[in-house]
Amino acid sequence: MELGTFYIALNVKDLKASRAFYEKLGFSVFDGKEEENWLMLRNGETKIGLFQGMFEQNLLTFHPADVRSIQKTLKEAGVALTTEADETTTGPAHATLVDPDGNPILIDQF
Predict the structure, then answer these.
(1) What are the backbone angles phi and psi of residue 18, rounded to the nearest 5°?
(2) What is residue 83's predicted lDDT score, i.e. its pLDDT?
(3) Do 66 and 109 touch, CB atoms closer than 8 A?
(4) In total, how many domains does the chain have?
(5) β-pairing, 59-63 with 104-109?
(6) 41, 83, 95, 103: which could form a disulfide with 27 (CB 3.0–4.6 Å)?
(7) 3-class state of residue 41 by DSSP
């Protein structure tokens, strides 16, 4: 099961302050819209997303080529999903789940 690229989506209180902080750690913006309260930053191969007012918690985020096949595999393994992709469609979709410690995971195909 190939989960695709990974980044952590951070729920931030102040997007500009968080951006300035992570830029001091060597990250730079490569995507996002500050006016929509989200930015993607990169430092080498490491990526983080900064999201103000979009999520309640930080999210572990994966971007696979096919979320539906991953969803099928997870369901067959008995993993409970909190949100499921519509299996009758194709294209962008997402599924969510929570690990045993309560950490939310987003599997997001775009």
Answers:
(1) -65, -40
(2) 97
(3) yes
(4) 1
(5) parallel
(6) 41
(7) strand
Sign of the torsion formed by the C-alpha atoms of 94, 98, 99 and 101: positive
Give the span between the Cα atoms of 53 and 11, in whole angstroms: 7
Quick one: average pLDDT of 64-93?
97
Question: What is the C-alpha to C-alpha distance for residues 53 and 5, in angstroms, rounded to an integer?
Answer: 23
Q: How far is CA 108 from CA 20, 50, 104, in A?
A: 27, 16, 13
Domain membership of residue 95 as a residue range:
5-109
Q: How many CB atoms lie within 10 A of CB 54?
A: 14
Region 86-90 average pLDDT = 95
Estimate the share of the chain in helix, then strand, then coil, as percent rounded to the nearest 5: 20, 40, 40
Q: What is the CATH number of the domain that holds 79?
A: 3.10.180.10
Q: pLDDT for 9-68, tens place per residue? A: 999 999 999 999 999 999 999 999 999 999 999 999 999 999 999 999 999 999 999 999
Question: ∠70-78-60 over CA atoms, to 5°?
Answer: 50
Q: pTM for the full model?
A: 0.87
